[in-house]
Write a structure and sequence with these properties.
nine-stranded mixed β-sheet; eight-stranded mixed β-sheet; single chain; alpha+beta
């Protein structure tokens, strides 16, 4: 079979992280003869070389190339490109890993859309990744119609013929931002770029030792010298005008304004941030015309103006004020409706002094000037928030706690100007989100795990995320767990922070089934058991009632059905064959969709006669009874050993 994808992995001293990377590459849904993995060992000294050779000996589609250390990732990637036989080339770093279907999905998507570059959805485990880019699929994306420029890491799939036609390769040697140069040129020269957003393809991992190249402190002089090379690519392949300004704005925003803002700036030693300031000031004056900064958000525009005007002390003062600006989101309602979990919330921004407020007479920012001081900057930003309030948004994002995979949920939004006591106005967003367990993971059902709720608030030039919580003192009552779309979904407040999260297919005791009492159950006749369960179902759902004899441990499964009751509870109805149950006490359990059987904490005591069925509470045995049980088990074990010895 022709090789569809060649995966190129530059490797240098990854330690144990190579195991997760390699496992994900060997466990792809694409058939093994349809892809190859090329590890390019850049002179590793930690024993990884031998491990890679072992993998190559075990798997025919794994190849290892060894070379002397080149100092950075550019040369090993180029060596991998030259050795690749696939129709497409995929770049993966040695401490990251892929989703199980990543190669198959990205390849099929690229072929279907005749793409030269395929960008797969990313999840950041301790590392930032683009969010807006992956809000939806973009089969025909450009740097003008999609935020492609927000994703400049090399973890893309590119058509091999495109690489050969353009001669596109990575810059080599010890240099920063070689991936920016490569990816920017790929975007600007490709016939088509496709963004796949409905499946997490790439997991970008922060190492526990923070040894990823992107987390090392860099030399400002060398860094911004290399950054200029990316700006050169933009100028080479675009015409002067709004599009070029938009592209250049990415580096002003991310590598300069954001780096010199708020807590990020304040966390640096003063001598280092002064050195950064000098280098950034030089680039801003040298390379960016007025149209570049004009498209920034208000706060970033203020930082850019202070950088341009060489006002370091004022920049630090503004960062000290802005460090106190953060979003807050409060849950107001959580309930099941028609199989969808409806989550109500409010969101607004806070400052160090309390809720962000604005006044109608606040001064508006100058088009390209800088404020006189931090107080004027704060007033400018408040005015910008008020002027743009009708465009403010609040999104609910579900994020898998284990993998950081993130998915936007549909939201209905209203905006409210709330008068404050001092005559100013608070800007409050009110939203209702709908979480459908059958489609919430990018159109697919939620999979098992813990899912945290984040709210992404865009207001007044800031876009920041926060957890949904903490729950207020008068917190909305949480609904019971639900069985929806074949998943058991339990909303709960986290112990730390009292934020709203979802437990999917993991909760057993927390379902509340263990809190039943005999009053919850009724034996309508000798053959039917009806139990009111604290378990939501949107419609009739097949289930299983498991009966376990307390004396012998014999089990008996009976078909049952769950039907909606009052929007919170469901009724479990099951037939019970009284003849088979006679003269025995039976524990009861509910068979869940994933095969688990949590106890219902109800006992059935069945007598000799027809209709002699009694529902009793399964009380927890007292300490004396537990001690007797332990002693009996120990005695049985001892007798068993003795019998074996005699034989």
């Amino acid at each position: 079979m022709p090789v569809k994808v060649s995966v190129v992995v530059p490797v240098y001293n990854p330690g144990p992280y190579i195991e997760d990377c390699a496992a994900s590459l060997l466990n792809q849904s694409l058939p093994a003869d349809a892809y190859e993995v090329i590890f390019v060992d850049d002179g590793s000294t930690d024993g990884t070389s031998a491990r890679l050779d072992e993998l190559a000996a075990q798997h025919a589609h794994v190849k290892v190339l060894h070379q002397e250390n080149s100092g950075w990732s550019g040369r090993p990637r180029n060596v991998g490109i030259d050795a690749a036989r696939g129709e497409f080339v995929m770049f993966v770093d040695n401490d990251d890993h892929l989703g199980h279907e990543a190669l198959e999905r990205m390849y099929d998507y690229g072929v279907a859309n005749k793409a030269d570059v395929i960008v797969g959805k990313m999840a950041g485990k301790g590392r930032p990744v683009p969010v807006e880019l992956f809000r939806r699929n973009h089969p025909h994306a450009t740097v003008d119609n999609a935020p492609l420029i927000d994703s400049l890491t090399p973890h893309k799939m590119l058509r091999r013929s495109f690489l050969d036609r353009t001669g596109l390769r990575f810059r080599e040697g010890r240099r920063r931002l070689e991936d920016h140069v490569f990816v920017t040129e790929a975007y600007l020269r490709a016939d088509n770029v496709s963004v796949l957003s409905d499946y997490v393809c790439y997991y970008h991992v922060k190492r526990d030792d923070a040894a990823n190249a992107g987390f090392q402190r860099f030399d400002p002089v060398g860094y911004y010298k290399n950054l200029r090379e990316a700006l050169d690519v933009v100028e080479r392949y675009s015409e002067p005008g709004p599009l070029r300004d938009k592209l250049l704005r990415r580096w002003l925003r991310v590598e300069m304004a954001d780096r010199m803002s708020g807590r990020r700036l304040l966390a640096m030693p003063d001598d280092y941030r002064r050195e950064l300031f000098r280098e950034i000031h030089a680039v801003v004056v040298e390379r960016f015309g007025p149209g570049v900064a004009a498209g920034l958000r208000p706060g970033q525009r203020i930082v850019a103006a202070l950088l341009r005007e060489d006002r370091y002390d004022d920049l630090v003062a503004f960062a000290e004020w802005e460090a106190g600006v953060r979003p807050r989101s409060v849950p107001t309602a959580v309930e099941w409706q028609d199989g969808i979990l409806r989550v109500g919330l409010t969101a607004e921004y806070l400052t160090a002094d309390g809720p962000l407020t604005v006044t109608t007479d606040a001064p508006r920012p100058a088009a390209d000037g800088a404020p006189r001081d931090a107080a004027e900057a704060a007033a400018w930003l408040g005015a910008a928030a008020a002027d743009g309030f009708e465009r403010a948004t609040a999104d609910l994002i579900l994020r898998d706690r284990a993998t950081a995979a993130s998915f936007f949920q549909p939201v209905e939004l209203t905006r409210e100007r709330v008068p404050a006591e001092d005559g100013s106005t608070r800007l409050v967003l009110r939203a209702t989100a709908g979480v459908d367990p059958g489609t919430a993971a990018g159109g697919a059902p939620l999979y098992g795990g813990l899912w945290d709720m984040f709210v992404r608030v865009s207001l007044g030039g800031w876009t920041k995320e926060c957890r949904l919580g903490p729950a207020p003192e008068q917190a909305p009552a949480l609904p019971s767990a639900g069985i929806v779309a074949g998943r058991v979904v339990l909303p709960y407040w986290t112990k730390q922070g009292r934020n709203l999260s979802l437990d999917v297919d993991r909760a057993v005791k927390s379902l509340g089934l263990h809190r039943l009492t005999p009053a919850d159950a009724a034996v309508s006749d000798a053959e039917t058991l009806t139990v009111a369960l604290p378990l939501y179902v949107p419609d009739s759902t097949a289930a299983t009632l498991r009966l376990t004899a307390t004396a012998s441990g014999r089990t008996l499964d009976r078909p049952a059905v769950l039907t909606p009751a009052d929007g919170v509870h469901s009724l479990l109805e099951a037939s019970i064959p009284s003849r088979e149950l006679r003269n025995t006490v039976w524990r009861t359990g509910l068979g869940l969709p994933d095969g688990r059987v949590p106890a219902l904490a109800l006992l059935l005591r069945v007598g000799r006669g027809r209709g002699d069925v009694e529902v009793v509470r399964a009380g927890r045995p007292g300490p004396l009874r537990r001690l007797v049980r332990v002693a009996r088990r120990a005695l049985r074990a001892a007798l068993g050993r003795t019998s074996t010895g005699r034989a």
